[in-house]
Amino acid sequence: MKIIKEEIVIDPMHSFKIFSPRLRNYFYWHYHPEIELVFVEATHGIRHVGKNISDFVGSDLVLIGPNVPHLNFDYGIQTDYHQIVVQFHEDFLENNIVHVPEFRTMATLMKEASLGLSFYGKTKERVVSKLKDINRKDRFSSLMDLMGILQVLANSPEVERLNREDTSVKFYLKDKVRMGTVYNYIHENYDKRPNVNEVAKLVHLGTPSFCRYFKQQTDITFTEFVNRYRINQAKTLLIQDGPVSEVCYRVGYGSISYFNKLFKQIQGETPTEFKKRNVKKTRKP
């Protein structure tokens, strides 16, 4: 699937759009001129914003600037999940915020949103609480809540910048790699032996050309991408209380010691430590 420009329609009687899309069985690699705030609550999921490919556990809160390519955050989620998306025109902020001194930090936030911003900690808790309540209020109160949310984000140190530079959509429109094809191939083969030569043929490129394109588009190699995808799948299985040894083999690794080493390298902790930290046991006494 090529990158898609999403046509967003916002009610002219409202300053923003808020809704809860469900697209987990659809690869939606897209962009739009509107700014977007996404909250998704799930056991585990993939985050692909601009060149950044990472993941989240439990929930994710991300602010995405205009025309920054991104994948739907519920793509491939196999468990129950909840998602809230807020979209608003860039010119709304330019007309109402940029020239107001009290909103200077908010204007800076909007500029940094071109990098893709992921928020965590107390900031995420405060914002999510407001997001879940915003749609039950009248228009004016909802708008004030949205401004309050942006102000909280603008003043928060609990933020991760997902990209090092502005990821212009022009770069992706020129790219010949079909990321949907790549994702589909890896999803079907991650527990076997994903072959870079096979996926290169699927996108009609020679293997060296594919490797260069893939590294240019994602800042990681195809092998790194496969390993991250496998580890992401492993996290879901671990959270579902799967034994570490079983999970290792189910995601395609033949060596538990190598699986442990790679998991710690990518996640910063061992599979056992990750499991203890995230699994909520429901055993009856």
Secondary-structure blueprint:
Layout lengths: L3 E2 L11 E3 L9 E3 L3 E15 L2 E13 L5 E2 L9 E8 L1 H7 L7 H9 L4 E3 L1 H14 L4 H16 L4 E3 L7 H6 L4 H11 L6 H7 L4 H12 L3 H18 L4 H7 L5 H12 L3 H8 L7
Parallel strand pairs: 1-3
Antiparallel strand pairs: 2-7, 3-6, 4-5, 4-7, 5-8, 8-9
Helix pairs in contact: 2-4, 3-4, 7-8
**Beta fraction:** 15-25%
Largest sheet: 6 strands, antiparallel
Order of helices and strands: EEEEEEEHHEHHEHHHHHHHH
Query: How many runs of DSSP E, i.e. beta strands?
Result: 9
Instruction: Count every helix, treating DSSP H or I runs of 4 or more residues as helices.
Output: 12
The radius of gyration over CA amounts to: 20 Å
Assembly type: single chain
> What's the average pLDDT?
88
Class from secondary-structure proportions? alpha+beta
Reported by name, the CATH topology of the largest domain is Jelly Rolls
Q: How does the overall form come out from the CA principal axes?
A: globular
Distance between the termini: 50 Å
CATH architecture of the largest domain: Sandwich
Stretches with pLDDT under 50, minimum 5 residues = 281-285
CATH class of the largest domain: Mainly Beta
Q: What strand line-up does the widest sheet have?
A: 2-7-4-5-8-9
Helix content: 40-55%
Number of domains: 2
